[in-house]
Design brief:
Length: 141
């Protein structure tokens, strides 16, 4: 199972997450459909090195994943971000699907506002976005 599939399995199986972004979750790879209702989350795997040492494959990988939390207000985007943080930050040893997770590291987040296509002012039809990166260390299968 890929880390992509494992992440989707974890998100879909976590009630706290599906309570804020629905079930099936509005959790999209790289881009959301234009028809997607807020709030939703987009994820992008930025890097996914498979580590090696002098004698070969180390059997350990990490995925640097960017999560983009979108909401109609800063409060709704922040609420979804906080649920994900509660689930993933500092996560130790477990399985997501069939992938053995060793550790999750959560990096600082940034917040911004994306105006609507018609150039509306803050709070007038645009979207609030929080983007966050996390490193997921896992055993290579």
């Amino acid at each position: 199972m890929s880390i992509n599939a494992a992440l989707n399995t974890k998100v879909a199986a976590t009630g706290a997450i599906t309570s804020v972004i629905d079930s099936p979750p509005k959790f999209y790879p790289m881009a959301a459909p234009t028809s997607a209702a807020l709030p939703y989350v987009i994820y992008t795997i930025i890097d996914n090195p498979h580590l090696e040492h002098q004698r070969g494959i180390a059997g350990l990988c990490y995925a640097n994943i960017q999560l983009d939390f979108y909401g109609a207000s800063s409060v709704s985007a922040s609420a979804v971000h906080e649920v994900f943080r509660g689930v993933f930050q500092g996560h130790l040893l477990g399985t997501w699907g069939s992938v053995a997770i060793k550790r999750v590291f959560w990096h600082g987040h940034r917040e911004l506002y994306e105006p609507s296509q018609n150039g509306a002012q803050l709070g007038e039809g645009g979207k609030y976005r929080i983007f966050q990166e996390m490193d997921v260390w896992y055993a290579e299968s």
